């Protein structure tokens, strides 16, 4: 049973991890490995203790003496997958480290098996048995690679990228179809295997070639003094293949237009070497020519198989690539050229972990990995082309660069696409890709950094009786600012850089140091104040004629959205003594609004009620109680059922599912209309599966998706700047949709062309397109 932490008996937090690598080993439950000749990948599953708020409708924010009341918490367990990659030559030292830090006794561990794939599964079987007491269960490598690839494609949104050398940006992350099959997986190891994957359990090896990474390494070692694979790649980066390769223009004097061959195309790899003076050839030129020769052949073979089988999605992985820019560039060029642009070479951010993930899934019954969705933990993962800084393990004479991926289980099960999206395959939640927009990137990275001290202060304030809260808040500050600084230099490190990803990273960093809900007391205080105003608020609405009532309900919905602690300008207003709902109304843009579809909305209401509305709510307090609930009540009174969709976990001052259930019960004591609707099953709250101030409709709970279908939802209402402006402004639906937000950021408002001092308003109603 969870233990309660709270009130004045609470003095310390959950123990925090001291190291960045191999975190939470003491709670590790199961291991798997992929051991290659050069790199080893360890996968393990652990349970992570975290503080979870106990919501209580009777709990007050102040005690009888006017002092802050420490919130009630319980310690819950979350599931996490860890994947760590390091050089195989350090495997014994790393196993020693694992052995020393595992809490489980040797007697317990020896009863378990470890799934191992890769060439080292045989070589290191005895060592694993000796060090960890685990029985080695060997798994077939290609099967593991495919299972790992499927897992990543389903769970990490920005897993897939296209590489464009010297592009701006060089990494582009395309939208991935919800249906990930069929695809081609080209694994470039020592040789090349080409796998056609048609379903989870239906795949086959359709071809390959013996000319692969081993060929490059072997010939490179014979032709140059390079001692290792990475040294050979580095050599190729400096070389000029044109000194050795014979080009089309060397034969024809320029382009060969009759055959459609550009002059710079390689006509013969190493074609000039026979006539070249020995002292004119540099090792770097040889390495680059060799790399191009092998990459071109692989690209041509892959494109032929893709076109033969009618496949558009071709994923490349394997030791030969390892996200190395020049290798990706040559393969991308080759497959694009030979397919005449019909096939695009695709790469995976975490392709190095495919085998380890697949091996882990083979024995993952304990964590039911296939029954849940998983999300990348930005606080514990290293980014693309960014191994974590060197970490010194015991008995190791040098610091080792280690790459790491952490994924957290989504407690709500498997997340799915919203069934009301029109063309889910083309759905992109984010409005702006900061990797492409340099001006916006600079603004938002600076903005998040400048606001950091406010969140540090709020985190400490949220746990007034915790002695180590300041130290943990400082750890949060250091972690998050290091991420921001890194993203300034490497904006593509974690996929598309967006406002949503920056917000999510902040939440991940807060949770890592045990601050699950920094705005809890603030939300409770505002909820209490708003509930006191609800009765008079509803009475004022009821005194209005029908048309004016609905106009006012729409305006109040927007005024409530001003109460947003995540927006700097709004937060400054909310700190002014006496700032309340009427003052928020005064700060709204005067009509006509920036986007003003109120008349279209009223015309639709006059035509009759919708069957059911799904409202994605935003903030606690005035927003949900005086904005959303009165608006929902008008829909209910008009004959429309209403589903209130709230976040699964806290983010800023957004209302959560657990909070909204309690708030709705309290509101029902004030409003007979709301109480009657709840009793009759016309009004209820559902968990959206979100944990962000933004909204990704590609990952909602299956229960909510099913409810939308069963109740024939024909109206979606999305509220809030994060959910409407930063995300979903251009999202298309199969039903009517109302997008409502107040732009509470001056820089963003100016980007939209609004220069007024008041907050611009978006009230955008889009009717279902009738075909």
| Main sheet summary | 9 strands, mixed
* Rg over CA atoms: 29 Å
Q: Percent helix among the residues? A: 25-40%
Poorly predicted regions: 1-19, 387-391
Cα distance, first to last residue? 55 Å
Subunit structure: Homodimer. Interacts with PKM.
GO molecular function: ATP binding; hydrolase activity; metal ion binding; pantothenate kinase activity
Keywords: ATP-binding, Coenzyme A biosynthesis, Hydrolase, Manganese, Metal-binding, Nickel, Nitration, Nucleotide-binding
Catalytic activity: (R)-4'-phospho-S-sulfopantetheine + H2O = (R)-S-sulfopantetheine + phosphate
Topology:
Blueprint: E1 4-5, E2 28-35, E3 39-53, E4 73-87, H1 91-101, H2 106-109, E5 113-117, H3 120-123, H4 125-132, E6 135-138, H5 141-155, E7 160-163, E8 171-172, E9 183-188, E10 192-199, E11 202-209, H6 213-223, H7 229-238, E12 246-247, H8 248-252, E13 266-268, H9 283-308, E14 313-317, H10 325-338, E15 344-348, H11 354-362, E16 374-376, E17 388-391, E18 400-409, E19 415-416, H12 438-450, H13 452-462, H14 469-489, H15 499-512, H16 520-542, H17 546-560, H18 568-574, H19 581-586, E20 595-596, H20 598-606, E21 612-616, H21 622-637, E22 641-646, H22 657-668, H23 672-679, E23 683-687, E24 700-701, H24 702-710, E25 715-719, H25 721-726, E26 736-742, H26 746-751, E27 761-766
Parallel strand pairs: 2-5, 5-6, 9-14, 14-15, 20-27, 21-22, 21-25, 22-23, 25-26
Antiparallel strand pairs: 1-4, 2-3, 3-4, 4-18, 7-8, 7-15, 9-10, 10-11, 12-13, 16-18, 17-18, 19-24, 26-27
Helix pairs in contact: 1-4, 5-11, 6-9, 7-9, 9-10, 12-14, 13-14, 14-15, 16-21, 17-21, 22-23
């Amino acid at each position: 049973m969870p233990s309660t932490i709270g009130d004045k008996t609470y003095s310390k937090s959950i123990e925090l991890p001291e190291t960045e690598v191999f975190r939470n080993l003491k709670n590790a439950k199961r291991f798997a490995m992929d051991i290659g000749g050069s790199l080893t990948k360890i996968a393990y599953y652990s349970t992570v203790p975290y503080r979870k708020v106990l919501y209580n409708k009777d709990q007050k924010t102040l005690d009888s003496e006017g002092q802050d009341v420490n919130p009630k918490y319980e310690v819950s367990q979350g599931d996490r997958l860890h994947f760590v990659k390091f050089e195989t030559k350090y495997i014994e030292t790393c196993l020693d480290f694992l052995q020393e830090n595992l809490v489980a006794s040797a007697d317990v561990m020896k009863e378990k098996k470890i799934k191992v794939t890769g060439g080292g599964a045989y070589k290191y079987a005895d060592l694993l048995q000796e060090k960890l007491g685990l029985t080695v269960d060997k798994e077939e490598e290609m099967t593991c690679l495919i299972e790992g690839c499927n897992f990543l494609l389903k769970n990490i949104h920005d897993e897939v990228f296209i590489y464009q050398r010297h592009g701006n940006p060089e990494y582009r992350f395309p939208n991935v179809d919800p249906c990930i099959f069929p695809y081609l997986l080209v694994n470039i190891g020592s040789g090349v295997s080409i796998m056609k994957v048609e379903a989870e359990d239906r795949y086959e090896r359709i071809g390959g070639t013996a000319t692969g990474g081993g060929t490059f390494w072997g010939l490179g070692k014979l032709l140059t003094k390079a001692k290792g694979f990475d040294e050979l790649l580095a050599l190729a980066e400096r070389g000029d293949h044109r000194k050795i390769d014979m080009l089309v223009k060397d034969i024809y004097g320029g382009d060969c237009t009759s055959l459609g061959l550009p002059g710079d195309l390689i006509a013969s790899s190493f074609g000039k070497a026979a006539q070249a003076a020995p002292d004119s050839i540099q090792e770097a030129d040889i390495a680059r020519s060799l790399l191009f020769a092998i990459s071109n052949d692989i690209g041509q073979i892959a494109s032929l198989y893709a076109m033969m089988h009618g496949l558009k999605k071709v994923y490349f992985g394997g030791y030969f690539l390892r996200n190395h820019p020049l290798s990706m560039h040559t393969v991308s060029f080759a497959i694009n050229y030979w397919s005449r642009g019909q096939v695009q070479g695709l790469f995976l951010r975490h392709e190095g972990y495919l085998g380890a993930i697949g091996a882990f899934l083979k024995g993952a019954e304990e964590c039911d990995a296939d029954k849940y969705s998983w999300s990348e933990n930005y606080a514990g993962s290293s980014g693309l082309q960014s191994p974590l800084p060197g970490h010194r393990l015991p008995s190791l004479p040098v610091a080792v660069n280690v790459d790491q991926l952490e994924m957290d289980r989504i407690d709500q099960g498997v997340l799915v696409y919203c069934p009301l999206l029109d063309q889910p395959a083309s759905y992109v939640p984010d409005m702006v890709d900061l990797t492409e927009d340099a001006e916006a990137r600079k603004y938002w990275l600076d903005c998040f950094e400048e606001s950091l001290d406010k969140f540090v202060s709020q985190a400490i304030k949220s746990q007034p009786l915790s002695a180590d809260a300041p130290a943990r808040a400082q750890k949060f500050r250091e972690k998050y600012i290091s991420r921001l600084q890194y993203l300034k230099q490497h904006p593509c490190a974690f996929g598309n850089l967006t406002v949503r990803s920056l917000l999510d990273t902040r939440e991940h960093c807060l949770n890592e140091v045990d601050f699950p809900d920094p705005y809890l007391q603030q939300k409770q205080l505002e909820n209490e104040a708003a509930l006191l105003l609800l009765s008079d608020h509803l009475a004022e609405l009821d005194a209005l004629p029908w048309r004016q009532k609905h106009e006012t309900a729409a305006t109040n919905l927007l005024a409530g959205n001003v109460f947003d602690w995540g927006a700097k300008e709004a937060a400054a207003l909310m700190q002014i003594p006496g700032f309340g709902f009427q003052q928020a109304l005064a700060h709204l843009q005067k009509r006509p609004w920036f986007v003003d579809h109120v008349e279209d909305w009223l015309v639709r209401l006059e035509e009759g009620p919708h069957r059911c509305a799904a409202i994605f709510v935003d903030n606690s307090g005035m927003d949900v109680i005086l904005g959303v609930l009165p608006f929902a009540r008008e829909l209910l009174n008009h004959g429309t059922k209403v589903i209130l969709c709230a976040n699964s976990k806290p983010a800023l001052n957004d209302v959560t599912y657990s909070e909204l259930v309690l708030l709705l019960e309290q509101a029902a004591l004030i409003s007979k209309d709301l109480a009657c609707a709840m009793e009759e099953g016309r009004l209820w709250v559902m968990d959206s599966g979100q944990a962000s101030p933004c909204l990704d409709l590609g990952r909602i709970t299956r229960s909510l998706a099913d409810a939308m279908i069963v109740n024939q939802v024909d109206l979606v209402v999305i509220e809030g700047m994060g959910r409407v402006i930063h995300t979903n402004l251009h999202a298309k639906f199969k039903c009517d949709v109302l997008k409502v937000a107040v732009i509470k950021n001056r820089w963003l408002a100016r980007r939209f062309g609004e220069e007024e001092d008041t907050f611009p308003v978006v009230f955008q109603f889009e009717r279902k397109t009738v075909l």
